[in-house]
Amino acid sequence: MSASQHLVFDALDKIYETSEGALSALASVSFDVARGEFVSIIGPSGCGKSTLLKITLGVVPLSGGEIRIDGRVVEGPQVDIGMVFQTPALPPWRRVLDNVLLPIEVLDKKPADYKDKARELLALVGISEFEGSWPRELSGGMQQRVAICRALIHDPGLMLMDEPFGALDAMTRENMQAELMRIWEEAHKTILFVTHSIDEAVLLSDRVIVLSPRPGRIVEEVTIELARPRTAATRSRSDFQDYALHLRQMLGLAEQV
Amino acid sequence: MLARLNQLLPAFFLIGLLVFWELAVQVLGIQDFLLPSPTAIIEKIFEIPGRLLVHTWATLREVLIGFGIALFGGVFLAVIISHSRTLSRTLYPVLVITQVVPTIAIVPVLTIWLGPTDTSRLLVVFLIAFFPIVVNTTAGMLRVDEELIDLIRGLNASRWKIFTKIRLPNALPYMFTGMRISIALSVIGAVVAEFVIADRGLGYLVFSATSNLDTVLVFAAVTLLAVMGIVLFRLVLLVQKLALPWAAESEEGEV
Q1: Which of B147, B153, B166 shows the shortest C-beta gap to A77?
Q2: Does A57 contact B at CB distance below 8 Å?
Q3: Can you tell me the distance from the alpha carbon of A75 to that of B131, in angstroms, rounded to the nearest whole number?
């Protein structure tokens, strides 16, 4: 097994049965992700990006093909995954620290054993002083930071992020991107990242996978060879812009004003 | 300043209404048995406090016990309904029927079945008051963040765990909304029951005083019922505030 085969998507099909007949969401999607790699998936709305993540998480069944993690075929929920959605999805009745500890309770482990770890994570994203706050007292960006801590608390090898910064304002978004890169470099996680933003995909990723409109097929895989660490200044580099333009062309956006 | 005025406005309006009522009765010389003045009603309450207290306590007891049964029964039914689609499809029509049939029409029948007992009265309170709790609590158990459910399921959570960790706490604010409606309905339920099957209670008092044309006493009893309803409603709000400090504060209704 080579390093590039940590996570393997092998001819993935997803067909939804609807009242208007079968709806194909994903069509023979195949790609590999190496351990520790940051891979983004971009594509138009409804191309099955989110479905792909939910299948990987094990909460949506696939219609054909298989997913393998370290050679083992994935069936049902995968505990070794941290999930972050576009909405923070923080239960409002749990204080910040308890929200971070939610997966620990669900996994029937002792929350007390993970309190220090939770505090470390909150410190990592810079919101230590809010551990006793209710979610409603936090801004959208801070709530999403809590959601990221929650995804990391049980130390999963793989993180799935479904447009995690899509609901944030532009400035918060750039801050969060920088923080995510820092976390990724410190924690050595494999990240599968769905986004609508071409710039975000280029800035964060080792590799970008472009999906076609429904049914989602892989149009192209682009390896992003920008030097790390990447910063805000990376955006103004000419090779960054070349990547972005290339992806726009792939998505059929290049000719638009 | 303006906000303060806004807060006081309902009180001013209420006082204005009472003053208008008092003046209208005095100036027009309306007789007590048609419409007693507010002061006459208050006088009546302080004239026979002991007797009214006995009746108030009888009603309050029925309201509290009936409401308690409606709360537990309602939440229990909500759990069952939200748990299974089949059960919900089977149960819901029956629950709706209990609501569209005017309970007051079947109270005499209940008396035939169960006699003029506490049980019949509490059953009437339950029938009138449980529905808002069922409907709201069920909505709260089903209206959960789907992504949160996915996240928990992704951690291999059992249905029981999803229920205790997510659905149940999520339903609490909804349950309190139901309770606010239900506590007011419980008072109505107790009065309806006492109209037909009681020898004490404020509902009984209203009924018997009406047949004696003792309108002042009717209004005295109605006033006590109104006070009881408002106090109980505010009590539910207070409990909600203390029990659910995490819920947004804009949600509460004002009385």
Answers
A1: B153
A2: yes
A3: 42
Are B94 and B127 contacting, i.e. CB atoms less than 8 angstroms apart?
A: no
Element (H, E) at A143: helix A140-152
A58 Cβ contact list (under 8 Å, min separation 6):
A74, A75, A76, A77, A78, A81, B154
Residue in chain B nearest A56 by alpha carbon? B154
CB B151 within 8 A of CB A147: no
DSSP conformation letters of A28-79: EEEEEE-TT-EEEEE-STTSSHHHHHHHHHTSS--SEEEEEETTEEP-S--T
Rounded to whole angstroms, the Cα distance separating B139 from B175 reads 9
CB contact A193 to B (< 8 Å): no
Residues of chain A in contact with residue B172, where contact means CB-CB under 8 angstroms, are: 93
Q: What type of residue sits at position B143?
A: R
- Asked if A178 has any chain B CB less than 8 Å from its own CB, the reply is no
pLDDT digits (tens, 9 = 90+) for A30-48: 999 999 999 999 988 878 8
Please state the pTM of the whole predicted model: 0.86
Q: What is the pLDDT of residues B83-132, one digit of tens each?
A: 888 888 888 888 888 888 888 888 888 888 988 889 999 999 999 999 99
Chain B CB contacts of A85 under 8 Å are 147, 150-151
SS3 state of residue A252 = coil
A69 CB near a chain B CB, below 8 Å? Answer: no
Q: Which residues does chain A have within 8 Å of residue B153's beta carbon, measured at their own beta carbons?
A: 59, 77
Q: In a 3-state reduction of DSSP, which class is residue A18?
A: strand
What does the block give as tokens for B101?
Answer: 């049939």
Q: Which amino acid would we find at residue A205?
A: S
CA atoms A63, A69, A71, A76: torsion sign: negative
Return the domain boundaries, chain B: 47-245
Chain B nearest-CA distance from A235, in A, is 32
Measured in angstroms, the CA of A215 and the nearest CA of chain B are apart by 23
This complex has an ipTM of 0.88
Test B151 with A83 for CB contact under 8 angstroms.
yes
What is chain A's Cα-based Rg?
Answer: 18
Q: Do B151 and A93 touch (CB under 8 A)?
A: no
Q: Which residues of A touch B150 (CB under 8 A)?
A: 54, 57, 59, 83, 85
- The CA distance from A241 to A202, in Å, is 9
Q: What's the token pair of residue A115?
A: 């309190």
Q: Are the Cβ atoms of A59 and B153 closer than 8 angstroms?
A: yes
User: What's the CATH fold of domain B47-245?
Assistant: MetI-like fold (1.10.3720)
